[in-house]
Amino acid sequence: MNILILTNGEYGDYTFCQKQKHYDYILCADNGMKHAKKLGICPDEILGDFDSCNENDLEFFKRQNVKITKAPCEKDETDTELALDTAISLGAVQIDLWGGIGSRMDHSLANIHLMYKALQKGVEVTLYSDRHIIRLLDKELELVGGKGDLVSLIPFTPVVKGVKTTSLAYGLEDGEFHIGKPYGVSNYMLEETAKVKIEEGVLIVIQARD
């Protein structure tokens, strides 16, 4: 089951949203509804504490008979985590999370940690923003992009072992990463596809656009 979550991060000119694929269910985390409205997307559900949303947007989607799930303002989860938990409970195998990276560093880091929560449950999450595609890797990953696209490999766990890359400019064969030594920053793709494989640990894989 493929599920889309729209959050209230940075979308830029919405270019990255134009490659929208089929989703079995679409969720908005709180003011992610603002972006859904601009994109002409009618979600299946909007959930959150609604402390940051525009009431007119909320009423707009209520009139479309969208499911509204209200959470208390004082809670232990972010609205994005509530959306992620809902997606997982619905049987998600793949979750695309739009706008999960932005000017709020705390939310950006929190969303990367939510990817790990999903990974532990066997669910793959991809974060998309106007300048980034971010994934967590515990086995093998194929990257699709263009020649020269920036790719950074950063350890999420204290140690990542057995790193092998294909079609990246600075190749690795049985490489090893340690937290505190980010030597995998600003690599780049030599072809339109590249591969990264690891044997142990979890790696943050970031495709970035300058």
UniProtKB/TrEMBL annotation:
Q: What CDD domains does the annotation carry?
A: TPK
A Gene Ontology molecular function term for this protein is: thiamine diphosphokinase activity
- What keywords are assigned to this protein? ATP-binding, Kinase, Nucleotide-binding, Transferase
The transmembrane residues are: none
Q: Which GO biological process entries does UniProt record here?
A: thiamine diphosphate biosynthetic process; thiamine metabolic process
Q: What Gene3D superfamilies does this protein map onto?
A: Thiamin pyrophosphokinase, catalytic domain
Q: NCBIfam families attached here?
A: thi_PPkinase
Where would I find the Thiamin pyrophosphokinase thiamin-binding domain in this sequence? 146-204
What top-level branch of life does the organism fall under?
Bacteria
Looking up SUPFAM superfamilies in the UniProt record yields: Thiamin pyrophosphokinase, catalytic domain, Thiamin pyrophosphokinase, substrate-binding domain
User: What protein name does the entry list?
Assistant: Thiamine diphosphokinase
Top-down, what is the taxonomic lineage of the species of origin?
A: Bacteria, Bacillati, Bacillota, Clostridia, Lachnospirales
The protein's matches in InterPro entries, at most eight in alphabetical order, are given as: Thi_PPkinase, Thiamin_PyroPKinase_B1-bd, TPK, TPK_B1-bd_sf, TPK_catalytic, TPK_catalytic_sf
